[in-house]
Design goal:
Length: 274
């Protein structure tokens, strides 16, 4: 195989396939774009550690042929922080769903961003808890149906981008599974960035969210990502400010990364002892 050729078999644990995702789930596209991003960056598999919690999205860590940890619900970033501090040269990638990232895992999310530790957090936003039965999530938004909201939700949803920006993440981006090549390029930049990177990828759950909210099958849900999103600053926003913006919102290279700051503290402490 030449340097530019890509083969999924080089990056997956084939013995764990077929995967558990429902037909039409967008998470497979996220996996595909991630593997292509890793390939195009030229990263060795031994340079990567992937940490995940619990949920449909978290199964990715079992499917990739990288160093990986399948941990407990909502704590993936905490485990990844420990790994990164002990092995700072590794590229740490953390795929998360709605709950892992911003419900039970919300506290870890904002503090990882605040610390600016060199981890790439992939928030796979399908607006629902898929694995546990279709409950509404912090990303569902008002007026949506779920198994725990048969008369629609009344909770406001988080804006992942705005939350990540406010918490101090130094790379913040958004894309969708419809825009797979764009998502791949964004992931490449996020993984390559030195600091805490948040890449939100809008993905569909036709089994629960789509069915409950009568949004159609997987293809129809992906069509919504095409029509309801625009690139940052698009003129279409003048007529329809409710469109969701895609692209890179923050790319700060000035803020000191956490592991580097920690090394400086150790160096200062050792000089004091000497």
């Amino acid at each position: 195989m030449t340097k530019n050729e890509f083969d999924y078999k080089d990056y997956i644990r084939a013995r764990f396939f077929p995967h558990i995702w429902c037909p039409g789930c967008g998470h497979g596209i996220v996996l595909s774009t991630l593997l292509r991003a890793v390939h195009e960056l030229g990263l060795d598999k031994n340079e990567i550690v992937m940490t995940s919690g619990i949920g449909c999205s978290s199964r990715i860590s079992g499917y990739v042929d990288f160093h990986s940890l399948h941990t407990i619900h909502g704590r993936a970033l905490a485990f990844a922080t420990g790994v990164k501090l002990s092995k700072p040269k590794l590229k740490a990638i953390v795929p998360m769903g709605d709950g892992d990232a911003l419900a039970i895992g919300g506290n870890h999310f904002i503090h990882a961003a605040r610390r600016n530790i060199d981890i790439t957090a992939i928030v796979m936003n399908n607006k629902i808890y898929g694995m546990t039965g279709g409950q509404f999530s912090p990303l569902s938004g008002q007026g949506k149906k779920a198994t725990t909201a048969p008369y629609t939700t009344i909770d406001n949803d988080f804006d992942v981008v705005e939350l990540a920006k406010a918490a101090g993440a130094t790379f913040v981006a958004r894309s969708t599974v419809y825009h797979a090549n764009e998502a791949k390029d964004v992931l490449k930049k996020g993984i390559d960035h030195k600091g805490f990177s948040v890449v939100e990828i809008l993905t569909q759950c036709p089994t629960y969210y789509g069915r409950k909210n009568k949004e159609g099958n997987a293809a129809q849900m992906m069509e919504v990502f095409k029509t309801n999103t625009v690139k940052i600053g698009s003129k279409k926003l003048e007529k329809n400010p409710g469109l969701i913006q895609r692209g890179i919102f923050v790319q700060d290279t000035e803020k000191l990364e956490y592991c580097e700051a920690y090394d400086k503290t150790i160096e200062t402490a050792m000089k004091g002892k000497a």
